[in-house]
Design goal:
The protein is mainly α and about 300 residues long. It is built from 9 helices and 2 strands.
Length: about 300
């Protein structure tokens, strides 16, 4: 009997990973290791440079082109925005958009659902789902179990998965908020002055979140008009990274939904492309490594 107990105990000595079939706390980096992380971030930085150089002309043009493509919504109405072709008048004010400017109105519900996937409430719902559907699993130590607390080993299952998901979203959301408060970038449709909305211009006013500034006295206090990076994109990709780590089979679904959430922020005129690109990269990176750290911490804590 003693030999059987020693054998069972020895067989459970390796820390259990969150990822199915992986022992030792999470394994290596996704998609082949550190080199792919470096390549990915280089591509992100190149995209940001292309969009933000020359006072953000690329970002402004891409945002205005998307607004033209999607057509009328809220404050922007194509019928009042269009102009007669003339020298110096931009093409997106003269060329008729698809469906006479009604593409967004026909797809609005889809974009609103995708946007809502990046809300903090979704994280709460996911945590509840993890808690309900994952078992409160503990590593059995068979006959040796009664010698330990409650007759079981270290907590796995719902505890570790919940902690990992919470760590990923809190870390990514907190860092993203700190960057937004520091950079002070105005939303492309934010209010520049009384009754005048931004038209996609690249406007930055660092550290202006909690006080009025002499340059832009109408800026919102409290961060409601901050743009860089997109909070929805950051949170959506942090969540996707955590869920991909926990359930690798659903990785492409999670990433597709997160991409839709990020794109919805540009389609709904709330963010520039650089906001969502950086937010997506930041969220996925911090989300993945936060989950991996939690996985390893639980494994070491046996």
């Amino acid at each position: 009997m003693d030999a059987e107990i020693r054998s069972l105990s020895a067989g459970t000595s390796a820390p259990l990973s969150l990822r199915p079939g992986v022992e030792g706390g999470g394994g290596g980096a996704p998609n082949g290791g550190r080199r792919r992380w470096i390549v990915g971030w280089v591509l992100v930085l190149v995209a940001l440079a292309a969009l933000l150089i020359n006072d953000g002309r690329g970002d402004t043009s891409a945002w205005r082109a998307t607004r033209w493509l999607m057509g009328s919504q809220d404050a922007y109405q194509w019928e009042t925005y269009k102009r007669t072709p003339a020298p110096g008048v931009a093409w997106y004010r003269t060329v008729e958009p698809p469906l006479h400017g009604g593409l967004y109105k026909r797809t609005e519900k889809i974009w609103r659902v995708l946007r809502d996937l990046g809300e903090p409430l979704v994280t709460v719902v996911l945590l509840a789902a993890v808690w309900i559907y994952l078992p409160d699993r503990r590593r059995p130590l068979a006959a040796a179990a009664p010698l330990r607390e409650g007759g079981a080993g270290p907590i796995c299952g719902r505890w570790r998965a919940s902690a990992a998901l919470l760590a990923a979203t809190l870390l990514a959301g907190g860092v993203g908020a700190l960057i937004r408060f520091s950079t002070g970038r105005l939303r492309p449709n934010g209010i520049v002055e009384y009754g005048v909305a931004n038209e996609g211009e690249n406007v930055w006013e660092c550290f202006r979140t909690f006080a009025r500034t002499p340059h832009f006295p109408y800026f919102s206090i409290g961060g409601g008009d901050l743009s860089f990076p997109s909070g929805h994109a950051t949170l959506a990709f942090a969540t996707a990274a955590a869920l991909s780590y926990l359930s690798p089979r659903g990785r492409w679904l999670f990433l597709a939904l997160a991409t839709g959430t990020a794109l919805s922020r540009v389609v709904m005129q709330a963010h520039f492309y650089s906001d969502v690109i950086f937010g997506a990269a930041l969220g996925y990176t911090l989300g993945y490594w936060a989950v991996r750290a939690v996985d390893q911490a639980f494994g070491r804590g046996r």
